[in-house]
Every structure is written in structure tokens, then in C-alpha cells.
Amino acid sequence: MKQHPDDSRLVSLVDGELTPEVAAETRSHLEKCWRCRTRLQAFEEQIASVARVFDAAAFADPRWIDRGLVRLGVRAEQTHQPRSLIRGISGFAFASLVAASTALWFQAPRNAEPRPQSAVSVPASKAVAHPVVSVPKAAAAPALPTPAPAPVVLEARIDLDQAEVAARYALFRIGADLGDPVEIERVNGRIVVGGVIALEERRMAVIGALRGIPGVAAEFDAPTGASPIPIPASAEVVVGRPPEVESELRQFLAGGQRNALEFGGVLIQRASRAVDHAWALRRLEEGFPPVKREALDSTSRDILMEMAFAHLAAVSSEMSAFGAEARPFFERAGVASAGTERAPLFQLVESLHRNTLSLFAAVSASEHSDPKARMIQILSCLEHLGPALSRTEQQWKTQGAGPRKEP
Amino acid sequence: MQDSPNGNTLGDLYRDWGASLLRFASTLATSPQVAEDLVHDVFLVLQQRLATGERIDNYRAWTITVVRNLAHKERRGAAKLVEMPSTIAAAPAPQHEIIALRGLLSPLTEREQEVLILRMESLSYREIADELGVAVGTVSALVARSLAKLKDVSRKKAQQGGRSEAASR
Asked: Cα–Cα distance between A152 and A310 in angstroms, integer?
């Protein structure tokens, strides 16, 4: 073969889809041609990496098959245990906890504040034994959106706190506790999860995730009119406009305003993700203050802790990436952070998010706002994040692990 | 129990192919629950077809066709699926993993996604071509193009990662 085989032929060779003659011809070309061998190898690597993601998404639990067979009437009953809410800590959350605890923390703050060794560490008890949580028998209750055709085992009293934790966990599993306008209320002795989700696919996913949780109803609407687009908080401090900071910003980014915007886009995304997680954590804290947490059964408490630590880990990793990306840049622009009070984690993250939005609005629109003041705010938030994360983590650890009430 | 064309029972087919079909359906459906309902409906239809003595030569390809059709209908809101009776206990769906898979495939066109998924489900190019109503040559071109696209995306991501690492130094 004189000509190099095209991509399609290389892939067909890997897939065993060539006729023996063409395959032999292609192979003999590959023996002689380094370039084509490298291309072939690249395809094989890509196939392997797609296969990894694909294999991970397998419905490997045999209960799926049992369930399907029972439903088809091929099998009479299930031999496996009832529905398990979490297989230990879900792999994803666990991985993010470990990743966050090993992630590099911000470079040493210039203030003398001691640097936390790890922002969020896996609680020893969780790392050792992953609790296998299963909902008690009474959990096999009517499906969600449709009214129960036959009240099966509903005489068992539904523990509302437990139901709320289960609902929050279902939302958490599909990331619907981040940014989706979802409200959780208690109405007439049951948990009603509702809100307005514009995208139908998303709405169905949320309803689907909540389906089958006892004592939980989903009431979602499609949007009726145009919803107002939230406008980022405007700059609070208006102190004229120091052009030197702006030009410094642009100079540092070498490529002018476009690069500044690109860089800003990354930071804004990180800040947004972090603030979403901080909000989710705050909702957990408000929904389940320490006293209420202590009164929960151990299963619900473990689930609550899993969610809280996953959110903490996410805030931590987004913020450490933010710190790594932004800090040297701000230092070049000649800003030194000023001290702030001991703000709670949520306030710090939110303030950082707001200031990031304002900063980049200021730089891109050159409006009357003070980029330097924004940068100082951001830096000081970053410097106080470590201690705030540790404090919050500590609070969850101690307040989550009170006397245990078994279900 | 009804015999399948291969001499297997419906239960055997489900055990052999059900989990793969569920994953395939999950990449198309709006939620894991809908995917499960889709798969259930497909096997229900298969059960009925077999009961009437219909011959289905390649049940894997056949079920894929029906899942695809149902999923497209369901997305348009046209399909009425049999809802899961809530008294049957479920295992946890690999939701994060499914989301990751959908995320991985997202840079591809719908056609490319379908080809890649079907190939991953071990269908031959001929089976994929029949399923999608295209030529075998088109399938190999689509597989090659989607792999090249994914490679490109991951290379760009790696470069971005490298840039932000460099920026932090």
C-alpha cells in the first residue's frame, strides 16, 4: 500500500471489520509506517478511555435484573434486600472528598494565620466503614407523581425528617440541590418538593429521582412567563476609577481584554460553582440545625453528613483552584489583601462570588467601579476561607455525631 | 415460559442483555426511571411478539430499535410508558456515571453518539448500519470521526489544565 490508510480504515482494522485481504494490506503498511502506527495507537487509547467511562455506567447491581424480571412477571418475587439508598458513600462523593483532602491548599497567606493542612478530611469513621443504608420495609410506598392506586403499607407512620433527608438526598444525587430553583416544604404531613424548572428534561429527571420516596410528593411547574434574569450585585464601593489597575490587569494577561475576559470567565465559573455548593450546604444547615440532626436516626444522619461533606469538599476544591489561578495574578497587579472579620464560610464564598462578578464587569465594561477594591476583597476572602472551611467541617463533625437514635 | 428464537427463555434474554439495554436507554432517556420503563416496555412487546409465534432473528438489534423509537417518542411526549409499580424495590442507578457518559458524548452529534454507543454495546458495523439505515462505510467513518472529535476535546482540556497550572506558578 503506497497511500496511508485513512482514519476510517484504521478504526475498521481495530474493530475487525476489514476483509482479510484489506486487513493484511493495512497491517503490512503499518509495519513500515511509524506515523500510521502512532495514529492507530491514538485511536486505541481513545477507545480505551471511552470504554472506561462506558463500563463505569453499567447497571452492575444484579437487583436491576431481578427487578425487571419481577416486573415482567418472569420471576415471582425478589430475593434481594429492599432498596438501598446509598451503596456506602457513593463513589463520586467519596472520590471528591479524598481529592479535596489531598488537594493543594492556597499558597501560604501573607497574614500570620496558620495554614490548614487539609481543608476537608474524610472523617475516620466514614473512611473505615461505609454504612450500607437501607430504607426500612415500610419504605415501599406509593409512587410519586401518580396517586397511589392501592395503599400498600402506608399505615406505618412516615417520619417527616427522614423523608426530607431522603428527598434531599435524591436531589443531591442528581445535582438538583445546586442552583435548581427547588423548594422543600412540609404540607399536610408530607414533604412537598416543588418549584419551577424550565427545561422539561431536567424537570422529568428531578421528578423521576423523587419518585418512590415514601412521604414525598413532587409538584413541579413549567415556567409560565419569562423569568427575570438575575443581575449580579452591583459594586458597593464606588471610588473613582484607578486606570493603573486596569492596565496592569490587561498587561499581565498580555493578550488584552479578550484574555482578561477568558480568565475572568474561568474564575466566575469557579466562584459560581463554589457558591452553589455553599448555598446547598447552608440549606442543609438551616433545614437540619444541630438539635434536629441529633434527633435523627443514624441512617438519615449519615446521609446528611455525606451530603454536607461532599459540598464542603466541592467548595474547598473549587476555591483552592480559584486561589491557585487568581492569587499570583492579583499579586502581580499589586494588591495586598486587608483583613476581614471571622465571617462564616457561606458569607465568605458568597462575597467572593459577588466580588468576582463585579470585578470582571468592571474590567470588561470599564465602568465606574474600583477593580482594586474588588481584588482586595477577593484576596481577603480567599485568605479566610481555609479557617472557615475547617470551622464548618468541625461543626458538622461534632454536631452530626451526637447520641445515636437507632431507627 | 415463551421460547426465544435462540431457544433461550425470555428470562435468559433479560439476564443476558437487560443491563446493557438499560445503559443504552439511559443515554437516551430523560431519567433512569424512564430508561427502566422503556426497557420494561420493550421486553413486554418482545414477550407478546414471541407469544404470537413471531420470529425475531436478532433480538439485540430488535430491542435496540424499539428502545430508540420509544425514547424518541418519549422525548416528544408522545409515548405512554407503563409506570413502574412502586412496590418493587430498586437498586441505586449509576446516575453520576450515566451523567459522566452523557457528558463525554455531548460534543458529538446525535448520529455520532448513537453509532459510538451501539459500537460500545458490541454491535457490528453491519448491525449498526441496518439499525440506523446507513451504509457500512458511513458507520466506520462516523466511528472514526467521533473518536477523533473526543480525542480533540480531551487534548484541549489537557492544554487548558496545563495553562491554568502554569498560571498558578
From this structure: 35
Report the chain A residue with the minimal C-alpha distance to residue B127.
Answer: A17
**pLDDT tens column, A54-111:** 888 887 777 777 777 777 776 654 443 333 333 333 333 433 333 443 333 333 333 3
CATH topology for B1-80? Rna Polymerase Sigma Factor; Chain: A (1.10.1740)
Q: Residue A205: its chain B contacts at CB < 8 A?
A: 30-31
A&B contacts, CB < 8 Å: 197
The fold for domain A136-228 equals Histidine-containing Protein; Chain: A; (3.30.1340)
* Cα A267 from Cα A72, distance rounded (Å): 51
Instruction: Classify residue B81 by its DSSP letter.
Output: P
How far is B88 from A72, CA to CA, in rounded Å? 11
**Are A68 and B43 within 8 A, CB to CB?**
yes
Every domain range in chain A assigned CATH 3.30.1340.30: 136-228
Residue A207, sorted as left (phi over 0), alpha (psi -120 to 50) or beta, turns out to be alpha
CATH class of B107-169: mainly alpha
Beta strands A216-221 and A84-86, pairing class: unpaired
Nearest alpha carbon to residue A252 among A326, A323, A332, A362: A332
| DSSP designation for B13 | H
Q: Is the pTM of this model over 0.80?
A: no
ipTM of the complex: 0.84
Closest-CA distance, A48 to chain B, in angstroms, reads 11
Which chain B residues are Cβ-neighbours of A325 within 8 angstroms?
164, 167-168
Is residue A305 helix, strand or coil?
A: helix
Distance from CA of B165 to the nearest CA of A (A): 8
